[in-house]
Amino acid sequence: MAEPVITVENLGKRYRLAHAPRADTLRDTLAQGARGLLRGWTGRGASSTEDFWALRDVSFSVNRGEVVGIIGRNGAGKSTLLKILSRITEPTAGRVTLRGRVASLLEVGTGFHPELSGRENIFLNGAILGMTRAEIRGKFDEIVAFAEVERFLDTPVKHYSSGMYVRLAFAVAAHLEPEILIVDEVLAVGDAAFQKKCLGKLQAVSQSEGRTVIFVSHNLPSIRGLCSTAVLLSEGKVQVTGPCRKVLEVYQHGLAHSAPTSVPTPTAELRDRAYVTGVVIENQSAQPCSVFPVGMPWRTRVRFRVEKALPHIVIAIGVKSADGTAIQTAWHPPCDLESGDYEATFNQEHVVLEAGTYAVIIGLSQGSHNLQQFEAAHIDISGEHAIGYYPGTVGLGLVLNSMATRLLKI
Predict the structure, then answer these.
(1) CB-based burial, 227-266: b 16+ in 10 Å, e otherwise
(2) How close are the terminal C-alpha atoms of the chain, in Å?
(3) Cα(267)–Cα(271) distance, integer angstroms
(4) Which of 154, 237, 328, 394 has the most CB atoms within 10 Å of its CB?
(5) DSSP letters of 60-85?
(6) Backbone angles phi, psi at 315, to 5 degrees
(7) Whole-angstrom Cα distance, residue 243 to residue 260?
(8) Contact, 290 vs 281, CB < 8 A?
(9) Mean pLDDT for each consecutive 10-residue tract of the chain (410 residues)?
(10) Which among 331, 385, 401, 317 has a CA at the least distance from the CA of 353?
């Protein structure tokens, strides 16, 4: 039986959260400062604290040559796990055993010095990975060709765009022959062609070169196409591990019965004008949902409150791809609204997205003045092929008013 190259045993990571009293006014701020001085004299703490376990009792193992997907909702503990595997942070409990050289790509520019050129950073990263100068020189041309930054090779990387950063960072991590390669959602920064190129490289290093890859992504089709096994995290714990297809089925089943959304707390200015109070994403049966097969219609209901009569109120919805590209947008025509609560419904039927993960953006404005704009949720479109029209394939980048809208006072 092959010895695992990664063994995670009863892993836990605890953070201590401090809760300071909120100060909304100058009087509150001064009173809070006075109380802080008194606490200092009496020896009492200035704020309360609580323990938060980002990971708890996490155990799994990875064999040589496996490509393992780490999946889960935002806040599930994925990034914390990768930081521990990359030796960026120490665990609070349990242990991790790594057998081999590790290269990590957790965020744009990981391990780069901004004042050094691309050429110098290649050698710097190689040295950090424990490679000799001769080994780095042997891979240098392949790295530069893959990253497509030859023209800017002697330019300090602080002048690189985020796309150039990630191209060079991935090229270094993938070509300098680590036994274990850890990649976070950072690949979403690159364009579609580069993402495809990177996924092909990850498959090559695992299948033909026998290296182990740990891959985190919200893009479920990429996980499905690349990974042989998967680990599903939920609230810092392992919910299920096993063959990738079965783990994804468990994950999607859970998502299909819920659609987590977030709405920011309105500012004092908005509370005097208008603000969004709730967002619901659902299927055509009015069931909350965030996973839709390719070709299935979906809709979003946005509730908002108008505090006083305002003219030219516009409520809008946008959809962005994983790399931040605007795919489509829709809005209800401007209305003069009285004070009260309203609900806008956006129904998606005619434009169908290809498989992937998308961010749903909500916007509320008055004429040309933007009141609110925020990312409310993510949706996953699952399936092997796109049905209908996907604007990214023809370079248009945006479909306008592609959703039927309705506005009601509630």
Answers:
(1) bbbbbbbbebbbbebeebeebbebbbebbbeebebebeeb
(2) 64
(3) 6
(4) 328
(5) EEE-TT-EEEEE-STTSSHHHHHHHH
(6) -115, 135
(7) 26
(8) yes
(9) 84 80 54 56 57 91 91 84 90 92 73 87 82 87 88 90 82 81 71 75 78 84 85 90 86 66 87 91 82 83 92 91 79 92 88 77 90 88 59 49 86
(10) 385
CATH number corresponding to 53-256: 3.40.50.300
Contact 236, 55 (CB under 8 A): yes
| Tokens 């990214």 belong to residue | 392
> Tell me, what DSSP letter sits at residue 87?
T
Q: Which CATH architecture has domain 268-409?
A: Distorted Sandwich (2.70)
**pTM higher than the cut 0.70:** no
Specify the DSSP element, H or E, that contains 50. Answer: strand 48-62
Cβ(49)–Cβ(19) below 8 Å: yes
For residue 47, the model assigns a pLDDT of 56
Task: Tell me how far apart the alpha carbons of residues 197 and 166 are, in angstroms, rounded to a whole number.
Answer: 13
Residue 278 contacts residue 303 (beta carbons within 8 Å): yes
CB of 302 closer than 8 Å to CB of 343:
yes
Domain boundaries, the chain: 53-256, 268-409
Q: How many CA atoms lie within 13 A of 194 on its CB side?
A: 22
